[in-house]
Design goal:
The protein is of the alpha/beta class. It has 19 helices and 25 strands. It has a six-stranded mixed sheet with strand order 2-1-3-4-6-7, sandwiched between helices. A hairpin with a 2-residue loop joins strand 9 and strand 10. Helix 11 packs antiparallel against helix 18 and helix 13 crosses helix 14.
Length: 569
Amino acid sequence: MDILLVASAFNSLSQRLYAELSDLGHRVDVVLAAHGPDPVRSAVAELRPDLIVAPMLRTALPEDVWREHTCLIVHPGPPGDRGPSSLDWAVAGRAARWGVTVLEAEAVMDAGPIWAAEPFPVPPVGKSDLYRNETSDAAVTAVLTAVRRYAEGSCKPLPQTDDSVTVVRRDPYRQQRRRIDWERDDTETVLGKLRAADSQPGVLDELLGREVFLHGGHPEDRLRGRPGALLAQRAGAVCRATRDGAVWIPELRPRRNSGDPAPFRRPAASVLAAYRPGPDLPEDPAPLELPPGRRTWTDIRYRQHGAVGHLGFSFPGGAMNTDQCRRLLAAYREALTRPTRVLVLGGPRDFFSNGIHLGVVEAAPDPARESWANLNAMDDLVEAVLRTTDRLVVAALAGNAAAGGAMLALAADEVWCRTGVVLNPHYRRMGLYGSEFWTYTLPRRVGPGEARRLTTEALPVSAATAARLGLVDRLVPAPPGRFPAEVERLAAGLAAAGDLDRRIAAKEAARAADERDRPLAAHREDELARMHAIFFDPDAPYHALRSAFVRKTPGGSPRPLAPAAGDPR
């Protein structure tokens, strides 16, 4: 069928549905409702779709559109649930299970007949993590079921007046309900409030006399202090005391009317450091290896089981700033000193990596210089992986990867991918040529013609298509909570394989041959020359695209699959 996706943003779920519906042979296009109703009407008139699917909407569809066309709305709540804050209520209320409902658009929001529904478990994670993983899996299953039923033409959707549907109307989850009372709230209550708002909208609070939104929350088992007091900093996060413990908060977002010129999410310590007088917080370094039973936060961890090392990392939003790249490189080098034959890279769930940290770049006094520093730090990390020849390196993608983060994965010997992952192995939609040795790793895996197509068309790629193209070596059909254990099992099997020594020797010989053919330094030099020209050109589209991205303002075309603005080639 011809299917039009209408979304407020081309986010992770919209990209996954685009990729998976395309895999099934449907002709899919996308229009962004954030640009207003007219682009939606224009896209519908131009494309005349058989079906309209709305994966993520912050505003209602134009009435003339849903009256004249079948429009399926993806609602992140169980059948009968109504309201704009469904997942917030689920996370804050510590629901054990929740659901996704695909319903037909009607005049009353969330009240249309039900085409499909799918339940899912709710682990103790942040709302954005839940949305990109368990919710996304359930949404894809429900949407594909609804699309199939619509195509068959024999299914009658279930009206919500049916006795089997219990209607529950939930109010918007406003800041008054999210407010933290540091004197009275215990740690679990604070964590519940933080997790229910970790990506958007954050929890509004006051620090050092400034109003800021708190993003993300993780427990701390040792540090203690006066409730509400800032206790320490670690890897850009700050630790704040609760009534009976403490929590780590990785990111802050200054309120728009606070006078801060960078009112978007970035590492908490860097936001506070810009305030005068700034806090003199002691650095509380976390060991690379945590002892069993510790309940604390760090963004990089190492553990080892026999001949397999696991270097885990998890950065908010998958973005990696200069410091994070350098710390991950130091941890990688430390991991190489351990007696292992297989080294697995990647966090237990959510994003693998999305490359350089555009928020930190945008907030820097000199964004061009910070872009350059961040990119070189990312290149150093990728080069270290490419030059590892004494063991096999596996990139285990529990979540999505894009741009330089995708190229970090491709630097490994094998890429293992959870089946719900989406890859964006390109840079053009941010107006960039790209680096991280993509001119070496991408053609090496898929050939020069396919590499050119992937980087030029700049479209999301499903895990299944990535495996078919050769970007991914192994698909891991596990739900998010079981992915780490499955990776551990597979890695142990790889380390015990009888041909491991032969594979490592062949890898070393291949790297030496490639180096003779064209040194890695030559790839890096050519890529960086093009990126330097973009970074330090104030008129390059990259700067406007970056600013629109981090400030969440409608930028670019309302048709995100159209050719990217500017051609960095």
